[in-house]
């Protein structure tokens, strides 16, 4: 194999995590995959060593400005740009380049949804980067375009989809996702200072205001027989990485815990990166830190008449950069798991 | 005033927090309130200085064994004992002593509920220590017995009760409460080690298994016109103190955000320790750290057709020891707010 | 008593902590002390409720711009301004106003030191706000001007001064102070983001570059018979508040552990806010959180031939705002301890 | 290659980290290295899935009791046992097995030192597992016995050795190492609870009482021309992993910053796992999280007349398990870096 890869927005947290994963990828280690242009906006001109000292192997690389010229001539381009900027770049890269977009631009298929939530013109819909959703893996194999999912939608979709698809619940779901602070990105802001976030918890973008809400709803609707409503509440917690999602919904008539367990076992038995935990064990974000795993548990609360599902992911790995590399592997025809760890950095 | 106070279970987190608050109480500062016996089980014989170096004013005090003899002769006795041990002690203290129980023993009014959840014989029901629940303040004034509420029920009840009482929601509530680790108490356990809890999130006692579930349901049922069901999911997060509760339920026919805000404003306008935050501001646990405040926000999610309420408390203060002292103030006829801070130790 | 207090820079961390302490001050509770103007720079026009939701009692107060006019007419003015701005304001306030400066402007007595470290003209020297240093309490009683010490100098000076003054060490000291992130202030910066500071440790302003170095050296020199050199290394750690200082120096000829303990016992026996811990107990920042205490331990390392001293303070309380209020109490002739807690908010 | 590996003490933090690294080792991925017996004491009979859910690939493995029988028949045996138990096991494994001991048993070469610090009979001295110390790599290549260094000695030795060896300092060193809590191991203890360690800092085993002190001194003495004294102060900080070491000592006559930088550059230019950072950049533990890197900075403090060195490692990786695998690679004649990441899991 001989493939060159560029990363636009390389100095953000998503870009840095893509690079960390690529540096451990067997194709990089054996020389088949080469890391080419690294670009940024305000960071252009700085070195990786200055910006991301955790990547010593690239320390001397200089961040170039994010332009189509800099990104041209690569076989794979990861885009880690602010929402709304990907289409213009992608158009200039040509149809043969594998473009893997970490922004929201191509995730939604309803133009009205896009415009309502993002306020600009809808750029289109690309194959959606959760290979574990029915039908998606086939679309991703050999694709030239990937819309990497949002971090919350990844945790919520993997938690809920088997129940929705099997009709185990009335899909009026209440989702609360507790997240580490790296989801807020690497830009200066008072609200994300260590002083404001350590030792504290708060909900934000509540009551339907978080932009990941329509993405979650869309994923569930694609596989639901019944109308879907989503109440989504993100909570900011004092840890760097990790999303713990809890989701509950009324149990459908006649549904049982055994049915639920069977549905999840069937859905994920062959998935390398989703693990249904044994009964009695709850997902814990520490156990997926830095890994591409999603740990899931499903239970029935008889008193409340609800199904409860929980999932744990690393928001930067399975929630963003790991999914991006997983999709790159599929796009390039490589082993889907290449370069992606199943072991968390615990404790 | 001349009152002596004993604390049983003084070396646990609840006991230590009661002492911290009492040491700043104006009646203690002016000599009217005296701190008498401090008792413990395994810690008997040790000094406060060894066990709780954060209380230097009591450093030389020796923890006595928890017996009725040691606790006799005080005007007020706080009990911070494991569940199921309070009744035996209380019986021996006599009817004129103010007994304030921080365990669950006297919280529930349904003996069947108690037996199902705690597995022993129901000891009875005492005035319940959330003065902000309609009717409770009157019961607590001058009382000789108080059942201090659980930490999760405090946050959840204060968040939901106005909506339930006003019939704003169909009370099929989904509650997720994210908590700091001090709720787990001060006993050695691998699961609560810093290594296992820092940098990690996990749900526990899920799907109706947490003992605070029947207490929350009981509180809501007392003031609901409709049948109540409660789905309660606690999540452990890496901070010492604080509970952030999110609760949602289907909006009742015709309910509006304005109705909701009005109901909460009415319920809490005169409460010294519950604050309905301005629109657009979310509760944050840092802002109530070490204080007796509960901050609340209420919103309507139109897309999901649900009411969303959030609340923040310090689990050891308003969630336990602060409520205990607030109730002591009521029981002794003091200013209800005496010794209790409304300011959080932020950041 | 009838005193009005203004706080300039009220919306910063020092200002907020001063307000938190004043709100619990007995003179505020009894109406003798009134909180007047609160001023800020970029925050002028916002309310305390928006900026500091942990202070609900002041929620409706509006931050005014920091001008001499706004600050005029108060009996006490706390200045929490950037270094170099205090003299201009203080000059306009008049000699009868108690001005308590939390910046560095009036801490150093050597104009050359000031110019080297701060790059501007030296404004002068005011009574220095560590009452526990020999002679200082007398200067602070009734004073109209106070230079509140830096947070690191407070922890280091209280740790080292008895040993220096008693000639127990050769004062060539190596100080490492591990600090929480609130010391970095409340302004947006990438380096102080939660993502960059949680789960991480780093030294900064190393090798003599931290501006608190000359302040520490000055404090020790004032009471040393021998020439003093200071190696000072601050380390940033993932907690909101707290400074743990370790300091070591070669033991002077003939010095013993018993001498050291005696010197510290003598120095601090009557101090309300400095506690020499029992042998075998180490200071822990949790135990002084939100309190005005400094916990100290002193030991001799026989193998290394060095004295080791450790101290714990809350950088915002004893390290800044608590010291400021302690000095206000002295300046106004109040009980020095009024409004200042000796109990930490632990755990 | 065809090698089988056993891990004794597999369910502790060191054992778990060895397994995490081995699971990503290229020889494991290609089938040349097989993971055989995993043993424990109190955990025998439990599965890896129950004990270490972060290692899903081994979930079904059962922990066997730690006996020579269980460990027999492997080519490589990692020992993660309490101090003092390794010799008995190693003796029974035979001279042809590669035994890699993570305990202290074979680290010291002075029997008196061992007896003073560990209180039992000295078992001997094995090749010491810091390949970056002059001469060590040669001893480790092809060895059958490795004494893996302590975590603090790794950080302190890599920080100080070039300065000591080049005679840049008078080796009377003051070392303060701030550490995450996983260094305390995975056993229930009140002092290591999340409640006791989050939001707090404390020094422990101070004034020469930490057992890593003689190990640090021994490492420096081996390469020093002058007598070495070590003052070592560990500080516990609220993060799971990471050690930030600061070390200072009087600069030798005539030493300069340029000399120091040159000495460190020379010492580490060809080392894959030690990186001298560019001037002006400080090591940060986040940047080596989960990696086998040690980042180092060296500076001169002219005012204090001291050299200051800082280093960052992950205590479980380069500080224990990573070093163990690095030594295994050397012992087996593999590429020394195989399976070991140079990239930290940041942020």
From TrEMBL, chains A, B, C, D:
PROSITE patterns: ARGC (PS01224)
Superkingdom in the source lineage: Bacteria
Ranges of residues in domain Semialdehyde dehydrogenase NAD-binding: 4-141
GO biological process, one term: L-arginine biosynthetic process
An example Gene Ontology molecular-function term: NADP+ binding
Enzyme Commission number(s) of this protein: 1.2.1.38
SMART domains: Semialdhyde_dh (SM00859)
The keyword Amino-acid biosynthesis belongs to this UniProt entry's keyword annotation: yes
Keyword Amino-acid biosynthesis applies: yes
Function: Catalyzes the NADPH-dependent reduction of N-acetyl-5-glutamyl phosphate to yield N-acetyl-L-glutamate 5-semialdehyde.
Annotated family: Belongs to the NAGSA dehydrogenase family. Type 1 subfamily.
Protein name from the UniProt record: N-acetyl-gamma-glutamyl-phosphate reductase
Native organism: Corynebacterium meridianum
Gene: argC
């Amino acid at each position: 194999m001989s493939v060159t890869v560029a990363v636009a927005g390389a100095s953000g947290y998503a870009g840095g995590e893509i690079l960390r994963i690529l540096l451990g990828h067997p194709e990089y280690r054996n020389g088949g995959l080469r890391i080419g242009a690294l670009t940024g906006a305000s960071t252009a001109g700085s070195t990786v060593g200055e910006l991301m000292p955790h990547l010593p192997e690239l320390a001397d690389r200089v961040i170039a400005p994010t332009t189509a010229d800099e990104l041209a001539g690569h076989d794979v381009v990861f885009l880690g740009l602010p929402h709304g900027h990907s289409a213009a770049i992608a158009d200039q890269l040509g149809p043969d380049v594998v473009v893997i977009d970490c922004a929201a631009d191509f995730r939604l298929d309803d133009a009205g949804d896009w415009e309502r939530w993002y306020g600009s013109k809808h750029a289109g819909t690309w194959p959606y980067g959760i290979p574990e959703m029915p039908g998606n893996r086939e679309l991703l194999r050999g694709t030239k375009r990937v819309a990497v999912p949002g971090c919350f939608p990844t945790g919520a979709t993997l938690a809920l989809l088997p129940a929705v698809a099997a009709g185990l619940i009335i899909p009026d779901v209440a989702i609360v996702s507790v997240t580490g602070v790296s989801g807020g990105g690497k830009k200066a802001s008072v609200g994300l200072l260590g002083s404001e976030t350590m030792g504290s918890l708060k909900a934000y973008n509540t009551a339907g205001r978080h932009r990941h809400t329509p993405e979650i709803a869309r994923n569930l609707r694609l596989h639901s027989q019944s109308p879907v409503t989503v109440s989504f509440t993100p909570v900011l917690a004092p840890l760097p990485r990790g999303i713990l999602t809890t989701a509950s919904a009324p149990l459908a008539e006649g549904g049982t815990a055994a049915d639920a367990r069977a549905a999840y076992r069937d859905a994920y038995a062959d998935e390398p990166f989703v693990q249904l935990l044994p009964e009695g064990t709850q997902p814990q974000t520490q156990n997926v830190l830095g890994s591409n795993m999603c740990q899931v548990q499903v239970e029935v609360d008889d008193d409340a008449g609800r199904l409860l599902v929980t999932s744990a992911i690393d928001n930067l790995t399975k929630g963003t950069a790991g999914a991006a590399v997983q999709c790159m592997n599929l796009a390039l025809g490589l082993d889907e798991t290449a370069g992606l760890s199943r072991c968390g950095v615990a404790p």
